[in-house]
Design a protein that fits this description.
Elements (H helix, E strand, L loop, with lengths): L5 H7 L4 E6 L4 E7 L14 E8 L2 E5 L2 E5 L4 E4 L5 E5 L5 E8 L8 E2 L2 H8 L2
Antiparallel strand pairs: 1-2, 1-9, 2-8, 3-6, 3-8, 4-5, 4-7
Length: 122
């Protein structure tokens, strides 16, 4: 099915990264960043990424410029932009991200950032 309750999916996700839907040109993933955690600095050369924040507070760092992020905020990371998102709060930072084109294999679930890092190095 290509219809889900995205708010519920994001709020109940305890995995660092969980792929929900993948199409030919875009992919929907939910992420949960623990207090004090981060996504990790990265650059997607050919992928635009949209992040919608659901719960928690954090910091968006795009090409070295920081700004606060929280619920109901959306950030567009254009392909080629060095970026990181850091949880600055005491509770999990929960978000939905859309990659265009898809970035991860359908069915991908990384329970922790360490699992995600290990998978990306293989």
């Amino acid at each position: 099915m290509n219809q889900i309750d995205i708010d519920h999916a994001a709020r109940t996700n305890d995995a660092f990264r969980r792929e929900l839907l993948t199409g030919e040109h875009a992919q929907v993933v939910v992420m949960t960043i623990p207090a004090g955690g981060e996504i990790g600095e990265e650059v997607h050369d050919d992928v635009d990424q949209v992040l919608l924040f659901i719960e928690g507070t954090g910091e968006a760092i795009l090409d070295g410029e920081s700004s606060a992020v929280g619920p109901h905020q959306l950030v567009l990371v254009r392909a080629g932009t060095r970026h990181n998102f850091v949880n600055t709060g005491d509770a999990p930072l929960r978000l939905v991200t859309v990659y265009a084109p898809p970035e991860h294999e359908p069915g991908t679930v990384h329970g922790t950032k360490a699992e995600a890092d290990a998978a990306e190095h293989h």
